[in-house]
Amino acid sequence: MPTVSKVLNGHPDVATETRRRVKAAIEELGYVRRGTRGLLAQRSIEVMADQLATPYAMEVLRGVTDAAEAADADIVVSRFHRAAPDAGWLAPGDWARRLSGAGRTGAIILTADLSPEHVAGLSQAHLPVVVIDPLDLTNPDVPSVGSTNFTGGMSATEHLLGLGHRHIAALGGRPQSVAAAARVHGFRAALASAGVPVDEELVEFAGFDYDSGFAVADRWFRSGLRPTALFAASDTQALGVLEAARQHGLDVPGDLSVVGYDDTYIAAWSTPPLTVVRQPLWEMGRVALDSVLALAAGREPVSRHIELATELVVRGSTRPPRGFGTGTGGGPA
């Protein structure tokens, strides 16, 4: 039994052949230890998000689960802002203790703002955590995974400029989101590089959701603001823009070119199919899972903030503005 215990707890002073035979016997007998994180204990990662019913979250979760299967780890999905048993929200310290008490190997948090109290609780619980698309990058103690949002915003705008558009709107995501801000900064940089002024009336931050995209675009169109092109901060936001354009009798892409962001499954299914900046969501989920497991094993990640490359995918929702190149308007300013 001492030898079996050493194998279960990962002690190095066991001969390779003996270790192999002990593992084979354990697997044949189906022995499972409870409440431990030893060598043969099943690793369990909790994925926490407040909005899972979105194409964005589902694509990230697909990457996490695919990587977990390859690593033979379990995934548990829950809300980041978890209700307390009595009333209100679970306090940061209790939040960390709940994860640790549940025997989690680590946690992945999707698009959330970790408070100093959350970070302190995680440190006390010795629980590795990785954040995907964090709202705030100012905390160097928490590793994170994202994408090249500035480059993505810039490439979307350069595509529209290359088609001949000069009256371009930008619809950012949540104003507190560092990713949304970076995309709009990329939009501004592309316009500045082309010598095209920004129409500040046509730059606005709102939610990443369909309703926010519809509401902002509808208000712009009702007030007489009619850009020839619009860059949206998410696919779902872009779908809201398409519906607002339809209700105002605007043809996409004839009257309005639209670029979305993320390239979730709904982008290719929309009418017309959306030109988008592809954010590697599946890969972000996979990298986050691998990073959590590496931290749990005592290995530091290559970088505290990992950025994966974005890519422009051109489909049917963008084209040159009407009259471009014919001498009837719409050409370069």
UniProtKB/TrEMBL annotation:
Q: Say yes or no: keyword rRNA-binding present.
A: no
Keywords linked to the UniProt accession: DNA-binding, Transcription, Transcription regulation
Q: Which PROSITE patterns match?
A: HTH_LACI_2
SMART domains given for it? HTH_LACI (SM00354)
**What InterPro entries does the record tag this protein with?**
HTH_LacI, LacI/GalR-like_sensor, Lambda_DNA-bd_dom_sf, Peripla_BP_I
Top-level taxon in the UniProt lineage: Bacteria
The record, for Pfam families, names: LacI, Peripla_BP_3
Q: Where is the HTH lacI-type domain?
A: 1-42
The answer, when asked if Hydrolase is one of the entry's keywords, is no
Q: What is the name of the protein in this document? A: LacI family transcriptional regulator
User: To which species is this protein native?
Assistant: Promicromonospora iranensis
